[in-house]
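Journal club prep — side note

Before the paper discussion, L.F. wants everyone to see what a predicted structure for a comparable chain looks like in token form. Sequence:
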Amino acid sequence: MSLSTARAKQKQGVARTTTWTSIALNCVLSTAQLTVGFIAHSQALLADGVHSLSDLVSDFIVLIANHRSAAAPDHDHNYGHSRYETVASLFLGGLLIAVGAGMLWRAGTRVLNLDDIPPVHASALMVALIVLVSKEALFRYMLRAAERVRSALLVANAWHARSDAASSLVVALGIIGSLAGLKFFDPIAAALVGFMVGKMGWSFAWDALQDLSDRALDQTAAADLRAILLGTPGVREVHELRTRKMGDLAIVDAHILVDPRISVSEGHFIAESARAYVMTDPRVIDALIHVDPESDALNPLPGDFPLRSTALDAVRAAFGAESLPIEELNLHYLSSGFDIDIVLPAHLPDQLGEDAAARLARIDIDALKRKLGAHELRVTHALRTTRDAPVRP
């Protein structure tokens, strides 16, 4: 099992446990709030009961999103389904905004008709205090679990519980004022609860919208990832490091600078090593590492360098005229210029009949360089011939 899969399973288990706990508690509390709020004539307690009902809806949203986000990548979602959590946070935020607006409207109508408000019974205060203690305990339990598995959606749901505790405190104060003979305290408390709920919903929705528009990790996290990449053996520099949120995790794109003279396979190995290192960070779900022989951001390549086929034809023609076979042809496309390394076999065929150095001397290297626009052209002999096959096209 991969590290990311294990983290996903752990998060799913924690989400299921905490959410069902929240559902059970909210069922009991919302029933008590709505029943006692209606009997005790407390608009604030009724508003808080509606708030608790919205918690039930949000809890089920969390369960559904958590289940969907844990699904493996498929042909429709190549990077997985982590953004289901972000979409759920956006929906939850919209729901809270709507609930808060409804509370504000209802409280406003009550304030305009204070004479029609019956006196509040003391039982409403008792229920409000019980809800306050219960929601604060639920918040601490859920936040501790959410931070352990690094789930933004579970953190949002935990803070939703804290907003419930705060709203219950406001409700309790409003009921106390109403019991003291200040009738407007109860609807004012209901209005404050509505404002708090709406503000919390806006915060959730805005954060989710930012994540859905490919928000990057913060600068501290990006610096951590850069340090991990720079710690990879063979990596000289890191540039064009980009991140984008995918649920609670992030996708990383980065360019690494390596020695321009190493082989393609070695550069690929360094890139795979860098990717393996950065994937150990718990914030990363996937990474794409691009290998550069030099910083293309600072030193863009000219667009007029010849293709390999063009260079190979020219070299073969020049060396073939002197019957000199080619063991290897290595091309280096750099901002400083186009460099060519020609490797001759260690042992030339006996039928050449004269020293290879004399044949090589008759080749106009400068003319070949000018023809190909090369900055450098080097000719070397292999220490030993490792293959008889012709140079690759």
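L.F.'s comment for the group: The chain has a mean pLDDT of 83. Keep this in mind when we get to the figures.
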